[in-house]
Amino acid sequence: KYLSTSQGNFETSWAKIHNLLELQHTDIKASFEKSLTVVQHQFKPAKFKHIRGFISIIALNITLSELKRAISIGVDRSACGCVICQTHGLPCAHEITEYKRECHPIPLERIDLHWKKLNLVAVTQKQKVKLSFQPEFELILDILKKLKEIANPGCTFLLDPEVKTRTRGRPSIKVDTSTHRDPSAFEISLSGQESCSLNVKSNSVTTTKSKAEVKRRGRPKTKVNNSTPVKSITFIDEFPVGLQSYIHHIKDVVADGNCGFRAIADLIGLGEDGWVQVRKDLLNELYSHLDDYGKLYGPERVNELIHILSYYENWPASSDRWMTMPDMGHLIASCYNVVLFHLSSVQCLTFLPLRSEPVHILSRRNIALGYVFGNHFVEV
């Protein structure tokens, strides 16, 4: 189309492609200039006064669409879904409602840097900050020296033993000719530990006997909770480094084997407990277009998907009932007419509806699903 002919050499094709790129370059610069200077009528209200002229018109249109959604959604986060916030770095409907209630315009700081760059100037790398680890290094060396002293009994922290002097009677003038040496401080300390361990051992025997007597008497047992607090799990490290700065919110769901369906149910507005309905919807999508999915996956895989989705019990699902990707992605996108982003450290995929016509970017609905630790789904 752009070369106007299938014949020609590299030189003529290069010239046409170069002219095409220059034209696109000019169009991009014109759109940037329009975003900086032109104020459209729908962006004149005070809500946009901090962002108009500072961000792209496309971002303004998306924000305007969320402003219209805010009228019906209000501050309900679950109804909002926060999809635009997570995928585009722009304020979503419930956030805009909060700004309106506080009579504050939409702040420029809430807009992602991607929409603020309205020029083609190359981004210069930030100056590297030199950090010094010398104080920490010296502290570690000091700790190692002290540990070495503790491990080696011949070090200088041992002191000479104190000799108990007699305070009563006449001092003896007899010379001590004994060949038995005085114990060192280390031996004194060691003998104290041995006596202490003997006391503990005797106490342990006594305690064991008393416990046996209590058991014979039929005293009720007392349960002791030895569980240790579980450290909070960080999901952000499970995603590619290049995407981590764009991920602003991660929501965990119950890990009962239905986590993938729970996350989808919450993302489309059914709530996490709507996972059974999601399974039924996806199964209906599969049965309704069985021939199409048979060509896409093959009959054997289709039967496996039917087995995975046919589970509605209220107890944890076994691994053969878990959501699997990427084949479930096409079912979800086509069933709910959404754009599904699947993010993980292994692969990042985008699923589009297989049958519906393309919709305008302002009406498009995007949801994101994260796969972490090789066995769990979360909302992103």
Structure, described:
The protein has 380 residues and is mostly helical. Among the domains are: 39-116, no CATH class; 236-379, Cathepsin B, Chain A (Alpha-Beta Complex). It contains 14 helices and 4 strands. β1 (339-343) and β2 (349-351) form a beta hairpin. α12 (290-297) crosses α13. The protein starts with 9 loop residues before the first helix and ends with a strand. Mean pLDDT is 78; it is low at 192-216 and 218-232.
The biggest beta sheet is recorded as:
4 strands, mixed
Oligomer type: single chain
CATH class of the domain at 236-379: Alpha Beta
What is the CATH architecture term of the domain at 236-379?
Alpha-Beta Complex
The share of residues in helices is 40-55%
Strand content: 5-15%
- Number of strand segments: 4
The termini sit apart by 40 Å
Tally of individual helices? 14
The H-and-E topology, N to C, reads as HHHHHHHHHHHHHHEEEE
**Secondary structure category:** mainly alpha
Mean pLDDT: 78
Tell me the radius of gyration. Answer: 36 Å
Shape: extended
| CATH fold type of the domain at 236-379 | Cathepsin B, Chain A
**Uncertain runs:** 192-216, 218-232
Strand order of the largest sheet: 2-1-3-4
